[in-house]
Amino acid sequence: MKSLNMHKIWWKIDILIAILCLILIEVPNHPVSALAIVFVSPTGSGVADCSQSAPCTLSTGLTTVDTGGTLYAAAGTYSAISGNEVVLLDKAINFYGGWNGAASGTPYRDPATNVSILDGGDARRVITAAGFTGQAQIDGFTIHNGNATGKVALCSATNAAGCGGGILVSGGKTTIEHCIIEDNVASTTTDATYRIGYGGGIYIQNAGTLGVMIQNNIIRYNDASTAATCGTLAITGKDCTR
Questions:
Q1: CA 112, CA 180: separation in Å to the nearest integer?
Q2: Cα separation of 14 and 75, whole Å?
Q3: Residue 179 Cα distances to 11, 30, 77, 218, 234, angstroms
C-alpha cells in the first residue's frame, strides 16, 4: 500500500511539472515595447514610464520613443555631463519642445511660454541627427552653449576642427523650425594648423541629398571659430570667425 501511495504522489508531481511547462510555453516573457508618444521633463525619472502623468528623463525618453513617434519635452533646461552631444537623434521622430507639463488632457505646446532649453554647457554639441531614414522634426527648443571642438567624425569639411556647434545633421530628412539657436561655436581650438570651424549654429553634411528644411527659427550669436586666424593651411584672406 505504501508503494502505491508513493506512485500516486510522483504521478501528481509529473502532471504539475507538465502544466508548468505548458504555461511557460504559452506565456513567454516579452520585453517592454517602444512607445509611440513619450513625455520628458528635466525632473523626470529614469525609471518612470514616460507617460504624460509620469515623465521620464530626456535620455530615457529618446531611447524609449519608437521610430515615427513623438517626444514632448516640458519647460526647463536639459544638459549632459558626458558624451559628444546632449541629444543623439538616431531615429525619425517628432522632437517637440514647449510642452506645458500637464498631467492629462491633450498635450499643449507653447515654446515661447514653456521654454525648453537644450544646453551644451560649452563642452559638447547640442544635437546630432544622424544614422536614420525617414523624416525627423526638431521643433520648439532653445539650443545654446554648444561646442563642437574636435567633433568631426560626421564632417568631411577640409581641415575641420569642429562642425555644428548647435546642430549637426548627417543622415535622414530633418525639419528644424520654431527654434532659437544661439551662442554656439563649432571650434575653439587655437591649433596653428587646424583652426577652421564649420557651422557654429547648424552644419549639414550632404545637404543636397538629405532634404533638410530650416524655417521660422531665430539663429544668432553663433561662431564657426573663435581662432584669430585660420592657420597655415588656410586660403589667403579666409575669415575663420564666420
A1: 10
A2: 59
A3: 71, 39, 14, 6, 33
Residue 143 lies in a domain: yes
SS3 197: strand
242 within some domain? no
What range defines the domain where residue 197 resides? 35-225
Q: What is the pLDDT of residues 109-168, one digit of tens each?
A: 999 999 999 999 999 999 999 989 899 999 999 999 999 999 999 998 888 899 999 999
Q: How many domains does the chain have?
A: 1
Q: Is residue 25 a part of any domain in this protein?
A: no
Record the pTM.
0.81
Q: Which helix (H) or strand (E) holds 21?
A: helix 2-26
Q: Which of 39-43, 58-62, 69-73, 186-190 has the lowest mean pLDDT?
A: 186-190
**H or E element that contains 180:** strand 180-182
